[in-house]
Design brief:
With 107 residues, the protein is mostly helical. Helix content is 91%, strand content 0%. The radius of gyration is 28 Å and the shape is rod-shaped.
């Protein structure tokens, strides 16, 4: 009789431990989901702040300034490099946003 009650007690303890583990995993997943949502929102705001048409227009305006002799070719390349760096940062933000949204959709 005592052997059976020890088995029941051990089974209850295992069940309780399993339930606590499950709850811990659920909380961890929920926290990860919230963090991803916050990151996605932040990245979306960052992406919307970029003005790509303005970047493209500025690049063509720089080329016209070189053609008109207002800007040296060295200055053109310096400014163009800055514009391309900005465009690269935009593309990196879009890439990160897509990765975060993809992971978020798994939840």
């Amino acid at each position: 009789l005592f052997s059976n009650s020890k088995k029941v007690k051990a089974a209850r303890l295992r069940q309780s431990a399993s339930e606590q583990q499950l709850e811990s995993a659920r909380i961890e997943v929920e926290n990860r989901r919230r963090a991803l949502y916050t990151e996605a929102t932040s990245l979306r705001t960052l992406i919307e702040a970029y003005d790509l048409p303005l970047l493209d227009k500025t690049l063509s305006d720089l080329m016209r300034a070189v053609s008109a002799g207002v800007l040296t070719i060295n200055d053109y390349y310096t400014e163009a490099d800055r514009l391309y760096s900005t465009h690269q940062a935009y593309l990196q933000a879009v890439n990160n946003y897509c990765k975060v949204v993809t992971e978020l959709n798994m939840y």
